[in-house]
Specification:
The chain contains one helix and 14 strands, in the order E-E-H-E-E-E-E-E-E-E-E-E-E-E-E. The protein has 200 residues and is mainly beta. Strands 3, 4, 6, 8, 11, 13 and 14 form a seven-stranded antiparallel sheet that branches. Strands 5, 7, 9, 10 and 12 form a five-stranded antiparallel sheet that branches. Strands 1-2 form a two-stranded antiparallel ribbon. The longest helix has 9 residues, at 24-32. 20% of the residues are buried.
Length: 200
Amino acid sequence: MKRNILNYLNEVIGELELADNTPEEVWQKKLAQYSVAPAGPPLPKDCTFAVDRENIDQELFETDFIKLIPLRKLWDKHASIELNNGNFTIPIDGVYNLDIQSRFNTFINVKNIEIAIFQVTEEEDDFWFTLKKERVFEDDTELHLGNMSQFDFKKDETYYIAVKLTPIDINLPTSCILLGSDDYTAWGMNYQTDLNDSYR
């Protein structure tokens, strides 16, 4: 006895011949192996990027969070970091290491510096976590903030890193300089492991 072989698009791709007394469950099992959709391209597991300021300082003003803007890609494998914007998009669910090193100087009326990560949303961007927050003391001429954290990121989510200055006197302007030197300032992330369980 013969039956048509159908692929996953329900197209006839051949014939299968078995004995006339073959049970129906055997027919179904044999035919099913031809109707499986082909596997897509493997998801990238080497997702990683690193960026810096290409030796150009970034001036930071006021007291709202300000994006850290990268000017040079050191590398970018499947992570989609946007230069002159700072957004990076997650290519695969997983646990990622997020690392930042940054140095600041030229403090004017600055009490604290805070670095945080935000998720881009359709409405107001979502504050996720503080990565680092340090006090600027009166005698400080420079301050180095570094941090490495792990996060559970989901595919197609978009994030960026931002800095906030807290003024000593809220009635006066506040500002500082993020040093662009690649000896001091760079940031990036890399995929670590599968995300099998998550609260999200």
